Amino acid sequence: MHYRLINYVLLLLLTGLMLNSSAYASDAKVLMLVDTCVACHGSNGNSVGPATPSIAGMRKNLFIKAMTDMKSGKRPSTVMHIIAKGYTDEEIELMAEFFNKQTFVNKFAPQPLVDNEKARQGKMLHEQHCSGCHKIGGPRKPLGNKIAGQWVPYLRYRISEFRSGADTTSPIMASALEYFFKLHQDDGIEDLLHYYGSLK
Ligand code: HEC
Ligand code: HEC
Questions:
Q1: Domain definitions of the chain by residue range
Q2: Looking at ligand 1, which atom is closest to the CA of residue 80?
Q3: Which CATH entry fits the domain spanning 106-200: 1.10.760.10, 1.10.10.10, 3.20.20.70, 1.20.58.1190?
Q4: CB 99 within 8 A of CB 34
Q5: For the segment 24-66, what is each residue's pLDDT rounded down to a tens digit?
Q6: N or C end: fewer C-beta atoms under 10 angstroms in the chain?
Q7: Mean residue pLDDT across the chain
Protein backbone atom coordinates (compact mmCIF):
# COMPACT_ATOMS: atom_id res chain seq x y z
CA MET A 1 0.00 0.00 0.00
CA HIS A 2 2.76 2.34 1.03
CA TYR A 3 4.76 1.55 -2.02
CA ARG A 4 1.82 2.15 -4.22
CA LEU A 5 1.25 5.53 -2.70
CA ILE A 6 4.90 6.42 -3.09
CA ASN A 7 4.86 5.27 -6.68
CA TYR A 8 1.78 7.32 -7.32
CA VAL A 9 3.35 10.42 -5.81
CA LEU A 10 6.52 9.84 -7.80
CA LEU A 11 4.52 9.43 -10.97
CA LEU A 12 2.71 12.69 -10.32
CA LEU A 13 5.97 14.47 -9.66
CA LEU A 14 7.52 13.04 -12.75
CA THR A 15 4.67 13.99 -15.10
CA GLY A 16 4.64 17.42 -13.48
CA LEU A 17 8.33 17.79 -14.22
CA MET A 18 7.94 16.57 -17.75
CA LEU A 19 5.08 18.95 -18.47
CA ASN A 20 7.05 21.80 -16.97
CA SER A 21 10.20 21.10 -18.83
CA SER A 22 8.42 20.83 -22.18
CA ALA A 23 6.73 24.16 -21.43
CA TYR A 24 10.14 25.65 -20.70
CA ALA A 25 11.53 24.18 -23.89
CA SER A 26 8.87 25.81 -26.06
CA ASP A 27 9.20 29.09 -24.11
CA ALA A 28 12.90 29.08 -24.80
CA LYS A 29 12.26 28.25 -28.43
CA VAL A 30 9.78 31.07 -28.94
CA LEU A 31 12.09 33.56 -27.23
CA MET A 32 14.85 32.52 -29.59
CA LEU A 33 12.52 32.92 -32.58
CA VAL A 34 11.23 36.36 -31.64
CA ASP A 35 14.70 37.65 -30.82
CA THR A 36 15.02 38.46 -34.53
CA CYS A 37 11.93 40.66 -34.47
CA VAL A 38 13.00 42.94 -31.61
CA ALA A 39 15.30 45.12 -33.72
CA CYS A 40 12.36 46.49 -35.70
CA HIS A 41 9.19 45.61 -33.80
CA GLY A 42 10.62 46.60 -30.42
CA SER A 43 10.75 44.36 -27.41
CA ASN A 44 7.39 42.62 -26.96
CA GLY A 45 6.13 43.80 -30.33
CA ASN A 46 5.83 47.52 -29.64
CA SER A 47 7.48 49.17 -32.60
CA VAL A 48 9.80 52.13 -32.17
CA GLY A 49 9.91 53.32 -35.79
CA PRO A 50 7.18 54.82 -37.99
CA ALA A 51 7.50 52.36 -40.91
CA THR A 52 7.19 49.30 -38.70
CA PRO A 53 3.85 48.26 -37.24
CA SER A 54 3.38 47.34 -33.62
CA ILE A 55 2.40 43.69 -33.45
CA ALA A 56 1.84 43.35 -29.70
CA GLY A 57 -1.60 41.90 -29.00
CA MET A 58 -2.20 41.19 -32.70
CA ARG A 59 -4.93 38.62 -33.22
CA LYS A 60 -3.51 35.20 -33.85
CA ASN A 61 -5.31 34.50 -37.10
CA LEU A 62 -4.40 37.89 -38.56
CA PHE A 63 -0.76 37.42 -37.53
CA ILE A 64 -0.61 34.04 -39.25
CA LYS A 65 -2.37 35.42 -42.32
CA ALA A 66 -0.02 38.41 -42.51
CA MET A 67 3.10 36.24 -42.20
CA THR A 68 1.87 33.68 -44.73
CA ASP A 69 0.78 36.33 -47.24
CA MET A 70 4.08 38.20 -46.96
CA LYS A 71 6.03 34.96 -47.20
CA SER A 72 4.26 33.99 -50.43
CA GLY A 73 4.53 37.54 -51.78
CA LYS A 74 0.74 37.94 -52.03
CA ARG A 75 0.98 40.87 -49.65
CA PRO A 76 3.64 43.39 -50.72
CA SER A 77 6.37 44.17 -48.21
CA THR A 78 9.74 45.87 -48.06
CA VAL A 79 11.53 43.47 -45.72
CA MET A 80 9.08 40.95 -44.32
CA HIS A 81 8.92 38.68 -47.38
CA ILE A 82 12.58 37.88 -46.76
CA ILE A 83 12.24 37.48 -43.00
CA ALA A 84 9.04 35.41 -43.14
CA LYS A 85 10.69 32.88 -45.45
CA GLY A 86 12.93 31.86 -42.56
CA TYR A 87 10.07 30.33 -40.55
CA THR A 88 7.93 27.20 -40.77
CA ASP A 89 4.17 27.19 -40.21
CA GLU A 90 4.70 25.78 -36.70
CA GLU A 91 7.19 28.51 -35.83
CA ILE A 92 4.86 31.18 -37.16
CA GLU A 93 2.09 29.77 -34.98
CA LEU A 94 4.32 29.83 -31.89
CA MET A 95 5.23 33.46 -32.57
CA ALA A 96 1.57 34.33 -33.19
CA GLU A 97 0.74 33.02 -29.72
CA PHE A 98 3.64 34.90 -28.17
CA PHE A 99 2.80 38.28 -29.71
CA ASN A 100 -0.91 37.86 -29.02
CA LYS A 101 -0.10 37.71 -25.30
CA GLN A 102 1.95 40.91 -25.31
CA THR A 103 0.38 44.22 -24.33
CA PHE A 104 0.13 47.03 -26.86
CA VAL A 105 1.68 50.15 -25.37
CA ASN A 106 1.93 53.38 -27.24
CA LYS A 107 4.43 55.65 -25.57
CA PHE A 108 4.32 58.12 -28.42
CA ALA A 109 0.66 59.18 -28.45
CA PRO A 110 -0.37 61.65 -29.56
CA GLN A 111 1.96 61.26 -32.48
CA PRO A 112 3.72 64.31 -33.93
CA LEU A 113 1.70 66.49 -36.30
CA VAL A 114 -1.73 65.50 -35.07
CA ASP A 115 -4.24 68.19 -36.01
CA ASN A 116 -7.05 68.19 -33.46
CA GLU A 117 -9.74 69.46 -35.82
CA LYS A 118 -8.91 66.74 -38.36
CA ALA A 119 -8.83 64.17 -35.59
CA ARG A 120 -12.31 65.27 -34.49
CA GLN A 121 -13.66 64.83 -38.04
CA GLY A 122 -11.78 61.54 -38.29
CA LYS A 123 -13.49 60.20 -35.19
CA MET A 124 -16.91 60.67 -36.79
CA LEU A 125 -15.78 59.09 -40.05
CA HIS A 126 -14.26 56.16 -38.18
CA GLU A 127 -17.47 55.52 -36.29
CA GLN A 128 -19.45 55.57 -39.53
CA HIS A 129 -17.16 53.50 -41.73
CA CYS A 130 -14.52 51.56 -39.85
CA SER A 131 -15.60 50.91 -36.27
CA GLY A 132 -17.64 47.85 -37.21
CA CYS A 133 -14.42 45.92 -37.79
CA HIS A 134 -11.71 48.01 -36.09
CA LYS A 135 -12.99 48.52 -32.58
CA ILE A 136 -11.31 51.33 -30.63
CA GLY A 137 -12.55 50.52 -27.13
CA GLY A 138 -15.11 48.39 -25.37
CA PRO A 139 -15.46 44.70 -24.74
CA ARG A 140 -16.33 43.43 -28.22
CA LYS A 141 -13.54 41.77 -30.17
CA PRO A 142 -12.55 43.51 -33.36
CA LEU A 143 -12.56 41.72 -36.69
CA GLY A 144 -9.68 43.69 -38.17
CA ASN A 145 -6.29 44.74 -36.83
CA LYS A 146 -5.81 47.28 -34.09
CA ILE A 147 -5.23 50.56 -35.86
CA ALA A 148 -5.64 53.01 -32.96
CA GLY A 149 -2.20 54.19 -31.94
CA GLN A 150 -0.50 52.35 -34.78
CA TRP A 151 2.16 54.47 -36.49
CA VAL A 152 0.48 56.89 -38.93
CA PRO A 153 3.07 56.58 -41.74
CA TYR A 154 2.61 52.80 -41.65
CA LEU A 155 -1.19 53.12 -41.77
CA ARG A 156 -1.02 55.56 -44.65
CA TYR A 157 1.15 53.12 -46.53
CA ARG A 158 -1.17 50.17 -45.87
CA ILE A 159 -4.21 52.11 -47.02
CA SER A 160 -2.49 52.98 -50.29
CA GLU A 161 -1.62 49.30 -50.77
CA PHE A 162 -5.25 48.24 -50.43
CA ARG A 163 -6.41 51.09 -52.60
CA SER A 164 -3.98 50.61 -55.45
CA GLY A 165 -4.69 46.88 -55.53
CA ALA A 166 -1.07 46.06 -54.61
CA ASP A 167 -2.46 44.11 -51.64
CA THR A 168 -5.24 41.81 -52.79
CA THR A 169 -5.27 39.69 -49.63
CA SER A 170 -8.17 41.49 -47.96
CA PRO A 171 -11.10 42.06 -50.34
CA ILE A 172 -13.16 43.14 -47.32
CA MET A 173 -10.78 46.09 -46.75
CA ALA A 174 -10.55 46.96 -50.42
CA SER A 175 -14.31 47.30 -50.70
CA ALA A 176 -14.65 49.19 -47.41
CA LEU A 177 -12.08 51.69 -48.71
CA GLU A 178 -13.60 51.97 -52.16
CA TYR A 179 -16.90 52.94 -50.64
CA PHE A 180 -15.21 55.37 -48.25
CA PHE A 181 -13.29 57.09 -51.04
CA LYS A 182 -16.38 57.66 -53.14
CA LEU A 183 -17.85 59.68 -50.29
CA HIS A 184 -14.85 61.31 -48.62
CA GLN A 185 -11.79 61.11 -50.91
CA ASP A 186 -8.22 61.73 -49.72
CA ASP A 187 -9.23 64.41 -47.22
CA GLY A 188 -11.36 61.88 -45.38
CA ILE A 189 -8.44 59.47 -45.13
CA GLU A 190 -6.24 62.24 -43.74
CA ASP A 191 -8.88 62.97 -41.08
CA LEU A 192 -8.98 59.29 -40.13
CA LEU A 193 -5.19 59.12 -39.87
CA HIS A 194 -5.08 62.15 -37.60
CA TYR A 195 -7.69 60.48 -35.40
CA TYR A 196 -5.77 57.19 -35.17
CA GLY A 197 -2.53 59.06 -34.47
CA SER A 198 -4.18 60.94 -31.61
CA LEU A 199 -5.13 57.72 -29.81
CA LYS A 200 -3.26 55.48 -27.42
C1 HEC B 1 14.29 44.78 -40.50
C2 HEC B 1 13.09 45.11 -39.74
C3 HEC B 1 12.11 44.01 -39.39
C4 HEC B 1 12.36 42.82 -38.74
C5 HEC B 1 13.69 42.27 -38.25
C6 HEC B 1 11.06 42.17 -38.58
N7 HEC B 1 10.07 42.96 -39.12
FE8 HEC B 1 8.08 42.47 -39.26
N9 HEC B 1 7.72 44.19 -40.27
C10 HEC B 1 8.68 45.11 -40.64
C11 HEC B 1 8.10 46.07 -41.58
C12 HEC B 1 8.80 47.28 -42.19
C13 HEC B 1 6.75 45.68 -41.77
C14 HEC B 1 5.72 46.26 -42.76
C15 HEC B 1 5.78 45.37 -44.01
C16 HEC B 1 7.07 45.55 -44.81
O17 HEC B 1 7.26 46.59 -45.40
O18 HEC B 1 7.90 44.61 -44.82
C19 HEC B 1 6.53 44.51 -40.91
C20 HEC B 1 5.31 43.85 -40.79
C21 HEC B 1 5.11 42.75 -39.98
C22 HEC B 1 3.82 42.13 -39.73
C23 HEC B 1 2.48 42.60 -40.25
C24 HEC B 1 1.78 43.40 -39.20
C25 HEC B 1 0.42 43.91 -39.61
O26 HEC B 1 -0.10 44.78 -38.86
O27 HEC B 1 -0.15 43.47 -40.60
C28 HEC B 1 4.04 41.06 -38.91
C29 HEC B 1 3.01 40.10 -38.37
C30 HEC B 1 5.47 41.01 -38.65
N31 HEC B 1 6.09 42.05 -39.30
C32 HEC B 1 6.08 40.05 -37.86
C33 HEC B 1 7.47 39.96 -37.66
C34 HEC B 1 8.10 38.89 -36.94
C35 HEC B 1 7.37 37.73 -36.28
C36 HEC B 1 9.45 39.13 -36.97
C37 HEC B 1 10.57 38.29 -36.39
C38 HEC B 1 10.62 36.92 -36.79
C39 HEC B 1 9.65 40.36 -37.72
N40 HEC B 1 8.42 40.83 -38.13
C41 HEC B 1 10.88 40.94 -37.98
C42 HEC B 1 10.01 45.14 -40.22
C43 HEC B 1 10.66 44.09 -39.62
C1 HEC C 1 -15.83 44.75 -42.96
C2 HEC C 1 -14.72 44.86 -42.08
C3 HEC C 1 -13.75 46.02 -42.25
C4 HEC C 1 -14.08 47.36 -42.41
C5 HEC C 1 -15.45 48.01 -42.50
C6 HEC C 1 -12.81 48.06 -42.42
N7 HEC C 1 -11.78 47.18 -42.27
FE8 HEC C 1 -9.79 47.63 -42.23
N9 HEC C 1 -9.31 45.66 -42.08
C10 HEC C 1 -10.23 44.63 -41.96
C11 HEC C 1 -9.51 43.38 -41.84
C12 HEC C 1 -10.14 42.01 -41.66
C13 HEC C 1 -8.13 43.71 -41.89
C14 HEC C 1 -6.97 42.75 -41.79
C15 HEC C 1 -6.56 42.44 -43.16
C16 HEC C 1 -5.38 41.57 -43.17
O17 HEC C 1 -4.29 42.04 -42.82
O18 HEC C 1 -5.53 40.41 -43.54
C19 HEC C 1 -8.05 45.14 -42.04
C20 HEC C 1 -6.86 45.85 -42.13
C21 HEC C 1 -6.75 47.23 -42.14
C22 HEC C 1 -5.51 47.97 -42.13
C23 HEC C 1 -4.13 47.38 -42.10
C24 HEC C 1 -3.70 47.19 -40.66
C25 HEC C 1 -2.34 46.59 -40.53
O26 HEC C 1 -1.95 46.34 -39.38
O27 HEC C 1 -1.65 46.36 -41.52
C28 HEC C 1 -5.84 49.31 -42.14
C29 HEC C 1 -4.88 50.47 -42.11
C30 HEC C 1 -7.28 49.40 -42.15
N31 HEC C 1 -7.81 48.12 -42.16
C32 HEC C 1 -7.99 50.58 -42.16
C33 HEC C 1 -9.37 50.67 -42.26
C34 HEC C 1 -10.11 51.91 -42.37
C35 HEC C 1 -9.46 53.29 -42.33
C36 HEC C 1 -11.42 51.61 -42.47
C37 HEC C 1 -12.61 52.54 -42.61
C38 HEC C 1 -12.56 53.41 -43.79
C39 HEC C 1 -11.53 50.14 -42.45
N40 HEC C 1 -10.26 49.63 -42.32
C41 HEC C 1 -12.71 49.44 -42.56
C42 HEC C 1 -11.59 44.75 -41.96
C43 HEC C 1 -12.31 45.93 -42.16
A1: 106-200
A2: 18
A3: 1.10.760.10
A4: yes
A5: 667 889 999 999 999 999 989 999 888 899 999 999 999 999 9
A6: N
A7: 87
**Cα torsion at 131, 136, 141, 144 (round to 10°)?**
60
Distances (CA, A) of 168 to 10, 150, 158, 184: 56, 21, 12, 22
User: What is 20-55 written as a DSSP string?
Assistant: HHHHHHHHHHHHHHHTTTHHHH-GGG---STTS---
Model confidence band, residue 22 (pLDDT cutoffs 50, 70, 90): low
Please confirm whether the linkage preceding 110 is cis (ω < 30° from 0). yes
Of all protein residues, the one whose alpha carbon is nearest to atom 29 of ligand 2 is 155
Give the N- to C-terminal CA distance of the chain in Å, as an integer: 62
The pLDDT value recorded for residue 9 is 57
Nearest to 52 by CA among 17, 77, 30: 77
d(Cα 110, Cα 100) in Å, to the nearest integer? 24
Choice from 41, 173, 193 to test ligand 2 binding pocket (greatest atom count within 8 A of CB) = 173
Which-ligand-closest: CA of 58? 1
